[in-house]
């Protein structure tokens, strides 16, 4: 039987994903007690609204996140988001700037390339918002030229947050490659042989949205 590995952070009201972005809030529309009268005391239900920024928790960026005329979340094909062969790139010893050397001699075409830094272990602490590992422009050029279908990282951002040009987002999203940020638990996934599912809602006009990302280990 296949084994599932959770790759997403849980979403909790008030949590912080990125400095300056709104934190998720919950509004209860119908609670258990008030619903009982509606169902004549025979059943009860809970209905709530979750108000969140698209860049909350573990999420996927569509090209529209960077480009005005880019593909939105609804336009992303499932072939780039679901049942993708995974290549784990262990960059835990690569330092902050993860360059093209980390991706040499790997088969990347049509695969989900997930970059493991273990920075996700800082999640929920102030340390998560400083000195994040990121991909260099040259590394992203390798990913694009070798046909990666999806690129994810277990870090605050796939770019150096001090670089306003955002070269990783620029190159990957220009090539139509979805980006997954704030992944977690990549150390539980083997270098090869697992498959990724990271599908956001089909939001027309949407640029980024949380996913329940997971790996299936055969």
Q: What summary fits the major beta sheet?
A: 9 strands, mixed
CATH architecture: 3-Layer(bba) Sandwich
- The mean pLDDT is 97
Q: Going across the major beta sheet, what is the strand order?
A: 1-13-11-5-7-9-10-4-12
Query: How many extended strands?
Result: 13
Please compute the radius of gyration using only Cα atoms. Answer: 19 Å
Which H/E pattern describes the elements?
Answer: EEHEEEEEEHEHEEEE
Number of domains: 1
| Helix content estimate | 10-25%
Structural class: alpha/beta
CATH topology: Glucose Oxidase, domain 1
Strand coverage percent:
15-25%
CATH class: Alpha Beta
- Number of helical runs? 3
| Unreliable parts | none
User: In CATH, what is the homologous superfamily?
Assistant: Putative cyclase
Gap between N and C termini: 7 Å
Shape: globular
Word description of this protein:
It is built from three helices and 13 strands. The chain has helices at residues 32-38, 137-145, 167-174, and strands at residues 3-6, 25-30, 47-51, 59-61, 82-90, 97-98, 112-116, 134-135, 150-153, 179-181, 194-197, 208-210, 214-217. Helix 2 (137-145) runs parallel beside helix 3. The mean pLDDT is 97. It has one domain (3-9, 54-217): Glucose Oxidase, domain 1 (3-Layer(bba) Sandwich), CATH 3.50.30. The chain is α/β, with parallel strands linked by helices. The protein starts with a strand and ends with a strand. Strands 1-13-11-5-7-9-10-4-12 form a nine-stranded mixed sheet, covered by helices on one side. Strands 2-3 form a two-stranded antiparallel ribbon.
């Amino acid at each position: 039987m296949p084994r599932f590995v959770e790759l997403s952070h849980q979403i909790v009201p008030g949590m912080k994903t990125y400095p300056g972005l709104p934190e998720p809030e919950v509004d209860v529309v119908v609670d258990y007690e008030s619903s009982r009268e509606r169902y004549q005391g025979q059943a009860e239900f809970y209905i709530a609204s979750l108000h969140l920024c698209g860049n909350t928790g573990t999420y996927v960026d569509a090209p529209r996140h960077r480009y005005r005329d880019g593909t939105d979340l609804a336009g992303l094909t499932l072939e780039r988001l679901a049942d993708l062969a995974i290549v784990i790139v262990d960059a835990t010893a690569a330092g902050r700037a993860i360059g093209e050397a980390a991706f040499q001699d790997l088969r990347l075409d049509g695969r989900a390339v997930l970059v493991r830094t273990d920075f996700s272990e800082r999640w929920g602490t102030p340390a998560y918002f400083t000195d994040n590992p990121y991909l260099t422009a040259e590394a992203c050029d390798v990913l694009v030229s070798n046909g990666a279908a999806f690129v994810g990282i277990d870090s605050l951002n796939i770019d150096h947050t001090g670089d306003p040009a955002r070269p990783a987002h620029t190159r990957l999203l220009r090539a139509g490659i979805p980006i997954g940020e704030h992944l977690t638990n990549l150390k539980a996934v083997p270098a090869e042989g697992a498959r990724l599912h990271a599908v956001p809602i089909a939001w027309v006009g949407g640029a980024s949205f949380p996913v329940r990302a997971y790996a299936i280990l055969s």
